[in-house]
Design brief:
The chain has 698 residues and is an alpha+beta fold. It has six domains: 62 residues, Helix hairpin bin (Helix Hairpins), CATH 1.10.287; 242 residues, DNA ligase/mRNA capping enzyme (D-amino Acid Aminotransferase, Chain A, domain 1, 2-Layer Sandwich), CATH 3.30.470.30; 110 residues, Nucleic acid-binding proteins (OB fold (Dihydrolipoamide Acetyltransferase, E2P), Beta Barrel); 87 residues, 5' to 3' exonuclease, C-terminal subdomain (DNA polymerase, domain 1), CATH 1.10.150; 82 residues, DNA polymerase, domain 1 (Orthogonal Bundle), CATH 1.10.150.20; 68 residues, BRCT domain (Rossmann fold, 3-Layer(aba) Sandwich). It is built from 25 helices and 22 strands. The structure holds 2-(butylsulfanyl)adenosine.
């Protein structure tokens, strides 16, 4: 690559910055992109490369900030220059007419309203000085909030540098940060797939999913790593301008000006001459809002003239010139046709309501989760009941109540199943647990198939020549019962194997049979899996709660399957992030003779049972050889796991507790009191992060 001088770099950085800002504006504000995503990414990459080469040329407003990378351990608390008030809420037409009456009495001449959607996200205040984004602060308690500027800079619809030149020298603009429904669904799908591969039950997964786009947006904006925020695709609509002596006469005029500087302003804002026009707007959006790509929970009605807003003023909590009309949670009524019981890979039973199809919040609902037996009992459900379903911000619709006036007098309460719907085994329910389980771990088809599917999955053994359909085929033909059976499959056993695939609605059933090409692919995929590194084998065997990351931690800490099999509870608990639940699950797994036998069969098949040098952190130096470290508190350059790896990479050892054998205690921010005390007592040197950095050569 040709060497570039600093002056040339500066010129190119300026060109790239203005080009990228322009494309960003076209894409996010005008919704009319001028180049492909790929070309855009190329420009951004070039800019990032140059800024890495010449860090002194990178400005805080550079579009490279969009990809994040700043880690904030604790957000600064900042006092709002203008307090962030809330709005009074109403749910009825009468309340709105009363509001209109109050406004009319308070003003002695004509006025108009502006109706805006009430975005369901988190409020944010953005301060711009000389056209540059300086600070972004959350609402907090209305008086002071958290400074989340680095995270906000990753939101592409928020300009880092303003367009044009007619903006006030200093102003604050407020709006709502939201997570579009599509991003929300995508993130939840990823979480759910990952947790399901890690052996969590439907119920446990439901508990861990992001609850609704608003919570997701609120959680995301307070994340420590802005690079993660950048990937979450947040968006932001602005709806209020604050500053000294702003030249705008109406709210609408101020929003139009803001739009011209590059802010995203809702296109659904409408000026209304009177309260009847406001009510028409509400009626339209009560229905149409489900078609929007993001959540709204109402409409905000504001007096348009800024002078009239000032005349009306504020109560202690909210402006007298605005009110929020909230939509009712959407619900629909339909018939409960049946209850279906699903069996997961871990044997957990999840009851699901089979409903007569009904339209709700923009989609057709046929199923609702029922979670467990208690839930069914609490609702006193009966087949044939007319039930109310709600989406109320949750991902999967739920049944909220039964319409008792429509209940058939001769109906009976649902009796929860006592036997597994798949294999007929008597179900179990452990004390204190809500879920029923099928204990027939080695004989229940969905459990067996589920375990094998997990075993071959991408992040486990990655045998992509097999999939759900082929696993079913092999299982139905009694060729596989456990993962290790895959390794005794042969060409002769597979060739010509048949399976009937029942057609989707309206389609005919099909018969497929395995041909030479597929057979060879399957066998070579299985053969190749023997080279998959140990940490993934450990993940693949499907110990409950041992996900990809936990497997990696265990593999690095214990180095071999043998060592993990022999590990005691105390030893397991010493590994970072391994708590009681995981430790117990590992011990339980190896207590079961069938599991030990399976692990043995996999060993005999030739899988990797030891950590390879490739999976181990690479050695950098031996400057810490013979030294043992205890790290306590938060460091700025590393997270907890990273620092441990770095210590080992320089030949040092990690200890979890301070003892006479400890050489140094590295103390970050807010170190543990007991560790520091013990170190002092034992006369062990306590060093800070800078000293530690010097030890390892910076
Ligand atoms: S105006 C003085 N306009 O609703 C109040 N707020 O309870 C100025 N919100 O904290 C707020 N969409 O987070 C306004 N179009 C909109 C809004 C909106 C959503 C939120 C905002 C505020 C809360 C009011």
């Amino acid at each position: 690559m040709k060497e570039i001088t600093k002056a040339e770099a500066q010129k190119r950085i300026e060109e790239l910055t203005s080009e990228i800002n322009e494309h960003n504006y076209k894409y996010y504000v005008q919704a009319s992109p001028a180049i492909s995503d790929y070309d855009f990414d190329m420009l951004l990459e070039e800019l990032i490369r140059l800024e890495k080469q010449f860090p002194e040329l990178a400005s805080p407003e550079s579009p490279s900030q969009r990809v994040g990378g700043t880690v904030t351990k604790e957000f600064n608390s900042v006092k709002h220059k203008y307090p962030m008030l809330s709005l009074s809420n109403t749910y009825s037409e009468q309340d709105l007419r009363d509001f209109d009456e109050r406004v009319r009495k308070g003003l002695d001449n004509e006025f108009q309203y502006i109706c805006e959607l009430k975005f369901d996200g988190v409020a944010i205040g953005l301060t711009y000085v000389d056209g540059k984004l300086k600070q972004a602060v959350t609402r907090g308690d209305g008086v002071q909030g958290d400074e989340v500027t680095a995270n906000v800079k990753t939101i592409r619809s928020i300009p880092l540098v303003l367009h044009g030149d007619d903006y006030p020298k200093e102003f604050e603009i407020r709006g709502e940060i939201l997570m579009p429904r599509s991003s929300f669904d995508k993130i939840n799908k990823e979480i759910s797939e990952q947790l399901s591969e890690d052996g969590y039950s439907e119920d446990e997964i439901a508990d861990r999913l992001l609850k609704n786009p608003r919570n997701a947006a609120a959680g995301t904006i307070k994340m420590q790593d802005s690079a993660v925020v950048a990937k979450r695709n947040l968006d932001c609509f602005l709806y209020a301008l604050y500053g000294e002596n702003l030249p705008y006469e109406t709210h609408q005029e101020s929003l139009e000006a803001a739009h011209s500087w590059g802010f995203k302003i809702s296109e659904h804002t409408k000026r209304c001459k009177n309260i009847d026009e406001v009510l028409d707007y509400l009626a339209v959006w009560e229905k149409k809002r489900t078609k929007l790509p993001f959540d709204t929970d109402g409409v905000v009605i504001k007096v348009d003239s800024i002078r009239q807003q000032k005349d009306l003023g504020f109560t202690a909590k909210s402006p007298r010139w605005a009110i929020a009309y909230k939509f009712k949670a959407e619900s629909a009524s339909t018939t409960l046709l049946d209850i279906i019981y699903q069996v997961g890979r871990t044997g957990a039973i999840t009851p699901v309501a089979d409903l007569k199809a009904v339209a709700l919040a923009g989609s057709t609902v046929r199923r609702a989760t029922l979670h467990n037996a208690d839930q069914i009992e609490k609702l006193d459900l009966r087949i044939g009941d007319q039930v109310f379903v709600e989406k109320g911000g949750e991902v999967i619709p739920k049944i909220t109540a039964v319409d008792l006036s429509k209940r058939d007098l001769f109906s009976h309460p649902v009796k929860y199943i006592t036997k597994c719907p798949e294999c007929g085994t008597e179900l179990e329910r452990k004390e204190g647990e809500a879920q029923h389980y099928c204990p027939n771990v080695n004989g229940c088809p969905p459990q067996i198939k589920g375990r094998i599917e997990h075993f071959i999955s991408r992040k486990a053994m990655n045998i992509d020549s097999l999939g759900e359909g082929k696993i079913e085929m092999l299982f139905d033909n009694k060729l596989i019962h456990r993962p290790s059976d895959l390794y005794s499959l042969t060409y002769d056993k597979l060739i010509g194997l048949e399976k009937i695939i029942s057609g989707e609605e309206g389609e005919k059933a099909k018969k497929i049979s395995l041909q030479e090409k597929s057979v060879k692919k399957i066998l070579s995929g299985i053969e190749e899996s023997k080279a998959v590194p140990f940490e993934r084998v450990l993940y693949a065997i499907g110990i409950r709660y041992v996900g990809e990351t936990v497997a990696k931690k265990l593999a690095i800490a214990f180095k071999s399957m043998d060592a993990i099999e022999k590990a005691s509870s105390e030893q397991l608990l010493q590994v970072e992030e391994i708590g009681e639940k995981i430790a117990e699950s590992v011990l339980e797994y190896f207590k079961v003779a069938a599991n030990r036998k399976e692990v043995e069969a996999l060993r005999n098949a030739g899988l990797q049972f030891e950590l390879s040098a490739d999976s181990m952190p690479k050695m950098i130096s031996n400057v810490l050889e013979g030294k043992s470290f205890v790290v306590t508190g938060t460091l700025t350059n590393f997270d907890r796991d990273q620092v441990k790896v770095v210590i080992e990479q320089h030949g040092g050892k990690n200890q979890s507790g301070v003892s006479a054998k400890t050489t140094f205690v590295v103390a970050g921010e807010k170190p543990g009191d007991s560790k520091i005390e013990k170190a002092k007592k034992l006369n062990i040197p306590i060093i800070d992060e800078d000293e530690f950095m010097k030890m390892i050569g910076g």
